[in-house]
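#struct-pred

JT: dropping the chains for the assembly here, can someone run the whole complex?
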Amino acid sequence: MNNGDNNNSLELTRELVKSGARSAEQIASEYLGRINASGDNCFISMLDGLAQAREIDDKARFGFDGKLLGAVVAIKDNMRYIGSVTTCGSAILTDKDTEDCEAVKRLKAAGAVIVGKTNMDEFAMGSSNATSAYGNVLNPLDRTRVPGGSSGGSAAAVASGLCMAALGSDTGGSIRQPASYCGVVGLKPTLGSIDGSGMYALSQDMDQIGPITKTVDENRLMFEVLSGRSMEKAEVKGLTVGLVREFEHWYTEDTKKVIQRAKEVLSSIGCKFVEVSLPSADAAFATYRALGNTQSANNLRNIGSAQERTDKLGIEVKKRILIGEYVLAHPEIAERAKRVKNKIIGEFEKAFESCDIIVSPSAPSVAFKFTDDRNNKEIVYSDIFTQPPSIAGLPALSVPCVKCESGLPIGVQLVGKKNAENVLFEIGKLFER
Amino acid sequence: LTTNLLSCIIMLMTRQEFESLIIKANLNDADNDELFDITAQAIASLETLKLYDGESNE
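RK: done, full complex below.
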């Protein structure tokens, strides 16, 4: 679809369908054709998209005008959709869903056409999409590289125009990191701001559904629909922007460019920069590992027999279950992790006493190449900037920021105070100019 | 550097404990050497928490 000057394909589609200039069925049919022609393995299964579109056209003729009227949307395959098998990227789940998850209900109520369920790391455990039982998703910007994960199918589908928007889920970076790798916009909203009922939980204390889109305006609209909140316009001129001292030792020549561009963009509207400190930031990974894997082990405990689990679960999932079991057997580790989690939360609260938003790269590198090396540093450390705000339950938006020498993008991560998504959207738009 | 060193030099999990975890996890992977190795490394990395846990630093 040619968007002309409008950078919100969702609004444009709504106008076209409302006016009768195009039908939701025509639009959905175009996208389905593109999906069928794509070889990037973004989708695990397709849904009844054309039937949904016809129903929306019927309703539109009688005045129905949802905010996402006719919008072509995909959902990550850890969200239940009635009649489909929600696989979570695993071979072990085969039962059909008996109802929609809450996020799907909201999308349907707003008039969206949900075309398919996107590929993902198995049980959302991974940062490359290479742990899916359904094969690798290819990054459409460079097919020798990963799209990121775990919401890699959603990010790649949006980036290659196979849908207008997609839902991902983010526990430690699973929306923001693939958004950075694929050059799209991804939001992890404030913890709890979108109802996750009906989504398979990885770690319910950190899991959050969020939208992935091409533009910030589209992301804002999706968030409004999913959260039921209206995003008031925020005044962002002259805000104070925090740069995290403890992140600096991770910076590379590429990620320094992200900070440089952020300074240029935000200085142009009178923002000033201050250094803030998150002394426990480097413990976020171990904290996430201890607390998140304990919940994962419990969440997956009743899935499959011993032989099915042995045969069908991937090694990354088994590893995380075992870590969880280890922590359950050593409760002092969980207690220690909870204390460190509280320290990280306190450090963010202190940092936000001296700034309005915190800016960092979304990822420490561009998308990396497919590899069999599980200890590859690019995999192990790909969430270093996204995990600390996840542990604190803060909203964080990744927006494409720079193109590196390789021609690949890195996003800027904008972290806000709780429920300050409107500030993040206003700031994020500045990076699109 | 500290985290990496800890991960390299501390292997907290014995093979016996691994086998016990395998049973708790309802898996039949007690002989899976690769799984043992990557799990042991991951568990060693949890030692990092001690460095940041001011209330009970040992």
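JT: nice. The radius of gyration of chain A is 20 Å. The interface with chain B takes residues 279-280, 282-283, 285-287, 289-290, 297, 301, 304-307, 309-310, 313, 315, 318-319, 321-323, 325-329, 333, 336-337, 339-340, 343, 374-375 of chain A (CB under 8 Å).
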